[in-house]
Specification:
6 strands, six-stranded antiparallel sheet, 5 helices
Length: 194
């Protein structure tokens, strides 16, 4: 960063640190103890929709990389598009396979990054659920290198459980790098993997 950047108030963007994803399994233990949420085995990587042969080749590479895992039922990663125009590569595992799910998410992010699609990456999420059936996602913001909780309320409408999100933030503060700017805790309505 130069003097002109400092004078104009420009900041250097935070570099993504995909290794932060590997903190999710230990955070899951804390989350279960603090709020009774357990992994669902579902997770996803969200990115701005990409078209063309280069992306199709990357998707095939990710499929081949994850296809080597014999502990999975169905396709290793499914491509889905949401109603907002974003694409999701969704991975499904058994609920007790959170470390393997994290490996999947890391591999998808890394493959996209290596093949030049890093600027399109938005976030990754791992799904959790409590005994009452409430959903929670721990969301990794790719461009910030931080996490935030997203807890949609069940039923009609797009409402979220802000109190639960703040409790999860407090509980996981020692386990994950939590995003401190609450304005960046954007909702992921209807996200595949949640």
């Amino acid at each position: 960063m130069g003097l002109l950047d400092i004078l104009l108030g420009r900041t250097k963007p935070v570099a993504p640190d995909l290794d932060q994803l590997f903190a999710l399994p230990s955070a899951a233990v804390t989350l279960e103890a603090a709020a009774s949420f357990t992994p669902t085995g579902r997770g996803a990587v969200c990115f701005a929709t990409v078209e063309g042969a280069a992306f199709e080749q990357t998707h095939r590479e990710v499929q081949a990389l994850l296809d080597a895992d014999a502990d999975r039922d169905g396709p290793p990663v499914a491509l889905r598009r949401d109603e907002y125009g974003y694409s999701w590569l969704v991975s499904e595992r058994a609920p007790d396979q959170l470390p393997e799910l994290v490996n999947d998410l890391h591999a998808v992010n890394s493959s996209m990054e290596v093949n030049g699609f890093g600027p399109q990456l938005l976030c990754s999420l791992a799904g959790f659920q409590d005994p009452q059936g409430r959903s929670l996602a721990l969301v990794y913001l790719y461009k910030r290198g931080t996490f935030f909780p997203f807890a949609p309320l069940p039923g009609e409408g797009q409402r979220r459980d802000n109190a639960l999100e703040l409790r999860v933030k407090a509980a996981l503060g020692d386990d994950l790098r939590i995003e401190q700017d609450l304005n960046r805790w954007f909702p992921l309505w209807g996200a595949p993997g949640l």
